[in-house]
Sequence to fold (170 residues):
Amino acid sequence: MADIMLENTDKRGLRQMATKWKESLEIEQLFSKPEEIYQKLVAAGCTKGYPAVHSWLTDEDVIAPQQKQDLQYIAAITENGVINELLDQIYDAAQEVRSAHVQAGKVLSAQLRSRIVEALDNYGDIDPFNIWEPIEMTVEGIGTVRVLKIIDIGSHIIVDVADTNRLLEE
Fold:
């Protein structure tokens, strides 16, 4: 949906521009292990921890590092002049792509809320005491949705930060 929003606002090339840093790191990974890349970044002045750098290398959902300075470190260790030359454009493109993702998330959340309410109205009787079986339904335009019933949270639940504020696919 974010890509559709970018395309509809004549910003279709921004995603490709925003991923130039990632392409450079992918080439670097052909010659270096993630730990070595991390050490090179630290030696260049990067202050990010290993988990952040590891996510840059492995997580396809990372649009770009949060700070422009991190792009400079990546350009330095990969010796990629294109990143240095287009640093502002790459950073600005990443910001636009991030913004499109936030907007897409808001649109999807609104659609999901309204369509789930409609689907629950049409679902029929719901046994509120059967917490073991999720309410499963197909919502037009979204797909299969499972609604879990929670009666009580007896203790804190630890949720991986990567699983928050996003729709998860099985």
Remarks:
- The CA atoms of residues 111 and 142 lie 9 Å apart.
- The chain has a mean pLDDT of 84.
